[in-house]
Structure formats: structure tokens, C-alpha cells
Amino acid sequence: MQAESRAGRLSSRPLGHINYLRETLNKNHMEFISPDIANVNLEDFMIEALQEAEVADQAGELPIGAVIVIDGEIISRGRARHNEFKNQLRHAELNAMLDGGDLLWKNYHRAILFTTV
Ligand SMILES: [Zn+2]
Predict the structure, then answer these.
(1) CA of 116 to the centre of ligand 1 (A)
(2) How many angstroms does the Cα of residue 91 sit away from the middle of ligand 1?
(3) How far apart are CA 101 and CA 106, in angstroms?
């Protein structure tokens, strides 16, 4: 599976808190997650959000990233861009929502936001 190979490729990176996240999701939050995404690999999307956080970090921003998923596909991405825009509102999550545009607007009820904070 493509998703597994991507996760495998990234497994050598310093993403130790993914394990914590997985345990937290499994133990505490899975019961709240819609059955629609019961078969979605949540870890893969968190890895994508962490990659956005890395980009933000490398740009001198707060290391925070986000992705928005609809029907198992990433439809938008965001990262902290406060310094770039000199704007306290440019959170990773808000930037991901802005990036989602019309597709997110029309499907927000099925959208899932993954953020690193
Ligand atoms: Zn935020």
C-alpha cells in the first residue's frame, strides 16, 4: 500500500511522538471519531501535518502544521506563518482552512482537521 510505504520511509525520522499520538488516539479518542474514517490510517495524516510543522520550523516559524482530510484524501495544508505575514491569526489550522477554499466550504461537515498541537 502506498500509505504504508510512505510511513515506512518516514519511520527513520525523529517522529517519536507519533507513537504517543497513536496510543492517545487509540485509547482515548477513537470512540469519538466518525465511523466514516474508521479505516483511515490516522498516523499517515499526522505525519503529513508534522511535515508541515517541519517546513514552518525551517522557515523560522512556530513548528506547527495541519492538514485537512475529506474522504481519506488531503484536500488542504497549512503551517504556522505568523512571522511571514506579521499576523497573529496565521495559525497552521487557519491557513489549512484558507487553503481548503470552495471544496472545504462545500464539504466541511465531512472534513477532518489534523494538527500537531
Ligand atoms: Zn492554532
Answers:
(1) 9
(2) 4
(3) 9
